[in-house]
Amino acid sequence: MLSRLSLNQETVRQWSLPELADGCARAGVRGVGLWRAPVRQYGVAAAARLVRDAGLEVTSLCRGGFFTAEDPGERAAALEDNRAAIEEAATLGTATLVLVSGGLPSGSRDLRGARERIAEALAELAPYAAERGVRLAIEPLHPMFAADRCVVSTLAQALDLAERFAAERVGVVVDTYHLWWDDTAGAGIDRAGGARIAAFQLADWVTPLPEGALLGRGQLGDGAVDLRWFRERVDGAGYRGPIEVEIFSPALWARDGAEVLSEIVERFTMHVG
Amino acid sequence: MLSRLSLNQETVRQWSLPELADGCARAGVRGVGLWRAPVRQYGVAAAARLVRDAGLEVTSLCRGGFFTAEDPGERAAALEDNRAAIEEAATLGTATLVLVSGGLPSGSRDLRGARERIAEALAELAPYAAERGVRLAIEPLHPMFAADRCVVSTLAQALDLAERFAAERVGVVVDTYHLWWDDTAGAGIDRAGGARIAAFQLADWVTPLPEGALLGRGQLGDGAVDLRWFRERVDGAGYRGPIEVEIFSPALWARDGAEVLSEIVERFTMHVG
């Protein structure tokens, strides 16, 4: 099970990219999930070399998306930016580009229209991505982000979008932090099946939420999520891919990166494996 | 439509109970939703007289619930407290006791078990409430409250619980703040029908969320919720009852109560009626 563990870069944002590569190699962790901003800052080709030389697999790139703008200029810019993200994913050697689809445009209350614009963007981008060996991965975000980040709030909604396309072109992300509360998540995982699940990510749910809600994720085992239940359900659906730990937490960022990673490995073994 | 407007007391918590009764009468608002703590502080019988003398209808009492404890002593205490809430509702002359069902017990990750304990508590309390002319009203709370306040997160889940009982004994609350993001909410409203909808409450969704997420609700029209869509759907399902405005917002509490109420009437006319 530990061979499937991947560390998402944002979990240890106190680490530079070389520190990340080195730290993972030392800890025996074989996968990393990367983010565009630090990768671009380091240089995409250089980052690809760095992780390859460290023997690491890039399990995903975060993130494309933000497809919901109504303004034609903004929409064109978003598509252009997503094409760049697809190129970056290809250069990094990962088949998975995670999409945060976008919230409601300012002043809009039209969730259905926003979701339809996501489908249009997927139709535009999926062939471009496929030509480069990259799959688009729709991530449902917790409903508390529906207004400002992502109008795709449930796995069922993500699948309604993804299933308009071939499974090898558009998949979904199962992230425990976003889905844990939903009693239909299990049915969604079964519906997705191993072929449609492009990524499986872990974080725990802890309270109280901080202002803005974004940086309130918990270390594995510290919160309300039955992580093992999710892992078994996803495996039961036929998923055999990496299991990525993605925790946005100032409390973890304030600590020594190697210590955080060692704790993650321990918690992963205890609560997931 | 304005004749259906009800003001939930927490929306103008800067007002004492006599100020609330007087302010609503002056503004031509004929319904109020009350909360147990201020009512008990004033005296339940005295509060009932006060609002009756002001010509107001009590459209709901908030709140019973918190049914999810595993400890037998805690469970007995919760049931006892809910019987008291039922008596208070009866004294106030309202047929609707709103339930916030409770989150996960400390250290638990068993959402299904917690939901089952809610069903057990409903079975225990519904006959007691019915004898006193009070209906239990299950309120699904936004999924961001699933861990610490209410494991009932969707209208579908609330209906799964409520439908175990007769519609005149156990109903559901449709609150736009909690349900707006959910593309299955409309189907849930249809499924509930007028007979099962015990209360219809309004608040708008605004961002960013404040720390703890509880006090971040928006004035009608300030946010992402299509309030008129909800009102039309609820009416279309056969609901003819009061429409209660329940906004927890320090920004509204800092203002003059009469000014806030006048703004609510204006916004209600513009965005709901």
From TrEMBL, chains A, B:
Pfam families in UniProt: AP_endonuc_2
GO molecular function: isomerase activity
Tagged with keyword Transmembrane: no
Protein's recorded name: Sugar phosphate isomerase
Entry keyword set: Isomerase
InterPro entries with a match to the protein in the record: IolE/XylAMocC-like, Xyl_isomerase-like_sf, Xyl_isomerase-like_TIM-brl
Start and end residues of each Xylose isomerase-like TIM barrel domain: 24-263
PANTHER family reported in the protein's UniProt record: HYDROXYPYRUVATE ISOMERASE, XYLOSE ISOMERASE
Organism: Streptomyces natalensis ATCC 27448
Transmembrane segments: none
Database matches in SUPFAM superfamilies: Xylose isomerase-like
